[in-house]
Write a structure and sequence with these properties.
Elements: E1 5-7, E2 11-15, E3 20-26, E4 41-43, H1 51-55, E5 79-81, E6 84-88, E7 95-99, H2 102-110, E8 132-138, E9 146-155, E10 159-168, E11 176-185, E12 190-197, E13 208-218, E14 221-230, H3 239-246, E15 252-255, E16 279-280, E17 287-288, H4 294-304, E18 307-312, H5 319-330, H6 337-344, E19 355-358, H7 373-390, E20 395-398, H8 407-425, E21 434-436, H9 452-482, E22 489-495, H10 513-528, E23 533-539, E24 547-550, E25 553-556, H11 558-569, E26 573-574, E27 576-581, E28 583-586, E29 595-599, E30 601-607, E31 613-620, E32 627-634, E33 640-647, E34 666-667, E35 678-683, E36 687-694
Parallel strand pairs: 2-27, 3-32, 4-15, 4-23, 15-18, 18-19, 19-20, 20-21, 21-22, 22-23
Antiparallel strand pairs: 1-2, 3-27, 5-8, 6-7, 7-14, 8-13, 9-12, 9-14, 10-11, 10-13, 16-17, 24-25, 26-30, 28-29, 30-31, 31-36, 32-35, 33-34, 33-36
Amino acid sequence: MPVPHHRPSLYLYTRTTDATTTITVNATEPYGTPISPDIFGNFLEDLGHAIERGILADAILNPSLEPESPSNTAPPFWTLQGDATWVEGGYYSPHAVQLASAANALKADTGVPTKSSQDSSGQGTSSLNEGRLEQIVFLPVTRDPRYRFEALCRSLGAEGTIELRIEGTEAREGQVFAKHPISVHGSTWQKITFTFSVQEATPQKGEAYRFVLAHTSGDPVIVDRISLMPTDNIAGLDPEVVARAREWHIPILRYPGGNFSSGYHWEDGIGHLDRRPSSRNPAWGGIQSNRFGTDEFLHFCHLLHIQPQITVNAGDGTPENAAAWVAYCNGAPDSSVYARMRAENGHPAPYGVKIWEVGNELYGGWQIGHTDAQGNAQRFVRFRDAMLQADPTIKLIATGKGDEFTPEGLSRDAAWNEALLRRSLEEGNRPPDYLSIHPLLPLPEAAGAPDYGDQYQSAMAFPTFLDRVMFPGLAHLIQQVEGPQPHTRLAVTEWGIIVGGPNWRSVPNHSTFSGAIFNALMLNAMMRHSDLISIANMTGFMHGGCIEKVRGVVYVDPQYYTQQLYAAAKPYYPVAIHIEGPGQDVPARGRLQAVTDVPDVDAFAALTKDRNTLTLFLVNRLIEGERQVRIELSGFDARSASATILTADSPMADNDWTHPDRIKPQPYSLPKDLLTGTVSLHLPAHTLLVLTLHR
């Protein structure tokens, strides 16, 4: 007899040798704890241009012309041509660029001006001697031909003139699509602002242009803090990214990290944009411009009607600094110097941020300010006390550990988490509201086999391991420490297939369809533990494969649709489900344990809050092999039904900027006998099917 694996009354799987998977759904009464909508959250980090080339609309990178490292001989992302010099003495930042022209020196010596060359079409404008500051940019000309230019400029004499140009590249090298003269008077910094149009007859999505500032006459000019913003921006944000995010239905967004948070100082990201410092990204390298800070993030959440979740710097930050951030966000206007700063920055009303995370992965040697279990426990208590002093109503997520999956690794996780929980309870204090874990799938090196099929099999068995082993183990630990009615719940603040290295596309990963199937299995597993898991942040918003922006073209990866389908369904009350059908035994590979009796077809069912809609999430996890599914439904009198399928030719299939709609959800034709209570469906390999029944 096969051994069933189950959670009592809610989920039962029995492995059989039948070719058909039978799913029995009993919706007579909802079971278990209601599902928190916040498990469909996401995670935004200043990583991989998620901010600079992602949610921001500005086409310019490194606007303040700062170095990434002392070895830089020119500002990153910029090219200096002719008489252009990278100099010290920027506007509220150390560096700027000086533009001059050797032609002007000739004019001074002979009294004869040297004009810029111009071809018969009137397109050429450059001189071999003019100083040019250049950057390759991707402009959404097909969407908006109008752009707002801003820069801080000053002259090294009475007057100098530079010219803005938008030039073609590659096949259209030498063509000029826009130009605008800029006169700079005197040595005092002045803000230059104007709007212009790119005169493009045949614009193409993803086309590269060259943004140029060229010196044309007069005295040398110093330029800094450069911006090139499409006029259809939404408060500085890319309107296409905002639209995709609104369509996503995510309820909560974690920010600013991630590893980035352990070196992030929030004061650098408030106040006037021109006066914010630029520096090297402390966690990931690259330039951190601080153009997207606290107020911008909270406005972004307001636009999307989602709850903010802020991670404070518990790496090289202090409890006092974290408490000041809470006061800045939540304090009444006259309650503290930080609340007054917020009001002065244009936001007199408190933001009311309720979810705060204390630190990120402080157990890891890769983390700024990492520590041991006792150090983390003591650090949480200090941060907790300071932050609650600033606002006693906030909810706190402590840095838990859930990133190892062998028996020895699970023991290390447990020791870390137990030390944290016990220390937090000392002197009658309250434990954390949430314990964070980051069960990121350890591929590719952990799979222990080069074969794609083996790695795919291990990846798709991983959510079953979490469901049966890690999540129950964490629940048991919390009850051991806090008693049978514990206060602390889980916040899975990072999860997904996150794969790096030069060969990441050769294994299951976050950008291909394999990520979409993995995420469906993960969401099913977490919903089964609705009594334990209240928050989950899929990795990540614009890194780790969700919303993409490549060459200025916005599109989405397949796993975006998984999260969208689940969140839009609004599952609330889990209902009892029994799966009987074929399965497989997955051997241990690398840092992943063996998992036995993994069902070929995974399923979860839930009612909406009003109990008028029942949704079934069906996942065929197999890399090859369709499955016939028989559904037997009781306790729900359905009057109508619909279904959506998300599938692809291969788990390795993906969307890209040239084919953004290769993979997307499609309507699924249901059999006519669906409403009779028993129905048979066909599930192709690696497929998610969302079946919706209305009472």
